[in-house]
Structures are given as structure tokens and as C-alpha cells.
Amino acid sequence: MIDAPLFQDRTEAGEKLAALIQAELMQHPVDATCNKIVYALPRGGLPVASPIANALSCPLTVLVSKKITHPNNPELAVGAVTASGEVLWMQQKTFSFRPERWREQAMETAIDKAKSLESQFLPFCPEVNHEGAILILVDDGIATGMTIAVAVKALAKLAPAQIWLVAPLAPPVMIPWLQEWCDSILRDSKINYRVIVLATPEQFVSVSSFYSKFPQVATSEALEYLKVKS
């Protein structure tokens, strides 16, 4: 049972993450010539990412990923995709198994949704030079890890120097899983990574249960964070 929420809202979580990231940069300085770019997973990631981008005085943009849901149970996530077509299946540690037909249809539906959402955000996203940059990938919390993990695949193709996975909270088991995932995806590249999470509560019910206020973020609200930065 959760005695008290960890965060008042997504903005407070973002402010706490911004302070932690700044401390991390002071303790482990990076090449000053490296651009820093904050990538939010919309929609809920934008209120968290905005204070981080403001604190670092760097661009704020988005990377859209969506869960692949089971056709007979929309609440059951079986994988995740990005708008650019990167795919990760829930039981997939490698890429050796072949999806059944229903999985292909569910994947195509999720990609279409991701592309539709991306089309609403792209007009408000800044042009960024991601090659050799530090890409800071932000969400409002990590539960299964699927959407943030598949986003790493997409960011790796942009040839950055580093990818940081950043969230206010995650289950304890998720940290080593994400590290293992990044090791496998980035092994053959020169891309370094960091996983930065404020809290790893043992009794992990859901991301929302650790916030006092955790409303759904409408697309119109999420877009305002990009408009403010532009």
C-alpha cells in the first residue's frame, strides 16, 4: 500500500529530474561541444520533459511510440512501436521469432496511431542536430518499459553520442532490464547510455498511483509545451 504519493504532478517530477540531471552533469562532465536535446514521449512525457529542457536550455522535441495491444483485450500490451516503424514485442529478447498474423495487424494499427499522433506534433518540433548529441529521452513513468525501450531503437539510428533514459519512477526490476536492453541495442555502436530514475518503489501498482494529480494529457495541452519552447 502506498502511504503517500511521490510527486504532486508531472511538472514537479520534471523539476526534480532536472535537478538530478544537472547534478549528474556536474559530477560526470560531458564534452561541452555536445548538443543536448530532450525527447519527450507524448503525451504524458511532455509536462515532465519541459522543466528538464528549460533547466538545460536545450531544445524540446518528441519521439512517438505506442503500445501494441491485443485485439481481444485493448488493455493488454503485447509490444510497442515507433512512428518510424521500430518494433519490440513483449516476449522478444532477440528478433528471431516470427509474429502471427494477428500480431502483424495489431502492429500495423499501432504504427498508424503513432504516425497520426506524430503528424500533430511535428509542425511544432524544432529542427535539431542530433548527430553526436546527447539525447535525453523522457517519460512520466516506466511500467512495462516497452514504449521507452523501442524509442531507444529509433534514437540509436540518429547517430548520437549518448542516449539517456529518464523517468520519475520505475519498478526495481526494470532498471537492469533496460540496461540489458541498451547493451544489446547499442553494443555495436559507440553510443553510450545512462538510465536515470528518481524512485524505484518495491510496491509498484501503477505509474499514476505515485502522483497526487495524474490526469490524461490532451494533445492540445501537450502541444503547448512545444509552442512555449519554439
Q: Which structural class do you get from the secondary structure elements? A: alpha/beta
The counted number of beta strands is 8
Q: What is the CATH C-level name of the domain at 10-64 and 129-229?
A: Alpha Beta
Which regions have little confidence, pLDDT < 50, spanning 5+ residues? 93-97
CATH structural fold name of the domain at 10-64 and 129-229: Rossmann fold
Strand/helix succession: HEHEEEEHEHEHEH
Largest sheet geometry: 5 strands, parallel
Strand order, main sheet: write it out: 2-1-6-7-8
Q: Give me the CATH architecture of the domain at 10-64 and 129-229, please.
A: 3-Layer(aba) Sandwich
Q: Give the CA-CA distance, first to last residue.
A: 42 Å
What does this structure look like?
The longest helix is centred in the middle third of the chain and has 21 residues, at 101-121. α1 runs parallel beside α2 (45-56), α2 packs parallel to α6 (219-229) and α4 (146-156) runs parallel beside α5. β6, α4 and β7 form a beta-alpha-beta unit. The model is unreliable at 93-97 (pLDDT under 50). The protein is globular and about 50 Å long. The chain has a domain at 10-64 and 129-229: 3-Layer(aba) Sandwich (Rossmann fold), CATH 3.40.50. The protein contains six helices and eight strands, in the order αβαββββαβαβαβα. The strands form two sheets. A five-stranded parallel β-sheet has the order 2-1-6-7-8, with helices on both faces. A three-stranded antiparallel β-sheet has the order 3-4-5. It is 37% helix and 21% strand. With 230 residues, the protein is of the alpha/beta class.
